Amino acid sequence: MIETAKEALYYALTNDTALKNLLGTTDNRIFGEYSRGLEVIPSITFFVFSSQRENGMSDRFIVEFQLDVWGNIHSVVADQIVSRIYGLLHNTTIKVNGTLKSFLCTVGQAREMIEDNVRHYSMDITIHTR
């Protein structure tokens, strides 16, 4: 079920016009790895840090992601991207080409860090799927 959750998250992020506009390019700036993501900013990276069956439900899974937003230290774009991700994903369902992939997605805590000349937000995303 990790694959389904990854597909749902990637689809939701890459198919949102407002998020694409904030990232400022038609090139993909959403990565499932750090190495490519840090070469271009602003960008978004994500990875799974936990996956488990939902209590008492043999066909439901909870997949937790760490999603990172990377931006220039002197720009507010990273802040705007975090706000857009929250609005896009929090308490939503995700469908990919009309097929339900996530019956609940929630956005948890966001932590801001400054590293060299990069503003970095780390966000917790939880996806409930079958």
How would you briefly describe this protein structure?
The chain has 130 residues and is α+β, with helices and mostly antiparallel strands.
Structural domain count: 1
Q: How large, in whole angstroms, is the Cα Rg?
A: 14 Å
Classified by CATH, the class is Alpha Beta
* CATH structural architecture: 2-Layer Sandwich
The low-pLDDT segments are none
CATH fold type = STM4215-like
Oligomer: single chain
Report the end-to-end length measured between terminal Cα atoms. Answer: 7 Å
Number of DSSP strands?
6
Describe what this molecule looks like in 3D.
The chain contains 4 helices and 6 strands, in the order ααβαββαβββ. The chain has a single domain (2-129), classed as STM4215-like. Helix 2 (17-23) packs antiparallel against helix 4. 28% of the residues lie in helices and 45% in strands. Strand 5 (99-115) and strand 6 form a beta hairpin. The mean pLDDT is 89. It has 130 residues and is an alpha+beta fold. It has helices at 2-14, 17-23, 34-37, 77-89; strands at 30-31, 43-53, 61-72, 92-96, 99-115, 118-129. The longest helix is centred in the first third of the chain and has 13 residues, at 2-14. The protein has a 6-stranded mixed sheet.
Chart the SSEs and their pairings.
Elements: H1 2-14, H2 17-23, E1 30-31, H3 34-37, E2 43-53, E3 61-72, H4 77-89, E4 92-96, E5 99-115, E6 118-129
Parallel strand pairs: 1-2
Antiparallel strand pairs: 2-3, 3-6, 4-5, 5-6
Helix pairs in contact: 2-4
